[in-house]
Amino acid sequence: KSLSEESMGRMKQRLESRNICRWRGKPIFVRHQTQKEIERESGVPQHDLDRVKKPEWLVPIGVCTHLGCAPIANAGECGGHHCPCHGSHYDASGRVRKGPAPANLEIPNYEFIEEDLVVVG
Ligand code: FES
């Protein structure tokens, strides 16, 4: 009998334009990126394309890298996420652009198993 994805600590998720799902107790902020966003974010250090498997889908862990609060998706001054706890702003690629957060939103291991279906973990 094969183990389910969940029992192996993995999560299977059908992608929708913007949704939040949970993986190992952490939120994952799935985000569909427009061509304009892909172009805008490609000029910043740590290239957007180094953070995605498909440019049009971002799959970061939604935990602020400052002190672990949950950032608000689709908010803030930089086109991505805002953590109101101490004022960190992340861009559409989940890279920190302003505030005390020391690192970009973490990208978990994930793989596409269908066009719009990922397994995280
Ligand atoms: S926990 Fe997010 S800015 Fe401090």
TrEMBL record:
* Required cofactor names: [2Fe-2S] cluster
Task: Give the cofactor note.
Answer: Binds 1 [2Fe-2S] cluster per subunit.
Q: Does the keyword Lipoprotein apply?
A: no
- Localized where? Membrane; Mitochondrion inner membrane
Q: Which GO terms describe its cellular component?
A: mitochondrial inner membrane
Q: Which PROSITE patterns match?
A: RIESKE
Primary location: membrane
Q: What's in the keyword line of the UniProt record?
A: 2Fe-2S, Disulfide bond, Electron transport, Iron, Iron-sulfur, Membrane, Metal-binding, Mitochondrion, Respiratory chain, Transmembrane, Transmembrane helix, Transport
Any GO MF annotation of the entry: 2 iron, 2 sulfur cluster binding
**Reaction catalysis annotation:** a quinol + 2 Fe(III)-[cytochrome c](out) = a quinone + 2 Fe(II)-[cytochrome c](out) + 2 H(+)(out)
Top-level taxon:
Eukaryota
Which EC numbers does the record give? 7.1.1.8
Q: Where is the Rieske domain?
A: 27-119
Q: How does it sit in the membrane?
A: Single-pass membrane protein
A Pfam family cross-referenced in the UniProt record is: Rieske
Quick check: keyword Secreted in the entry? no
Return the similarity comment: Belongs to the Rieske iron-sulfur protein family.
Q: What does the further note read?
A: The Rieske protein is a high potential 2Fe-2S protein.
Protein name, as recorded: Cytochrome b-c1 complex subunit Rieske, mitochondrial
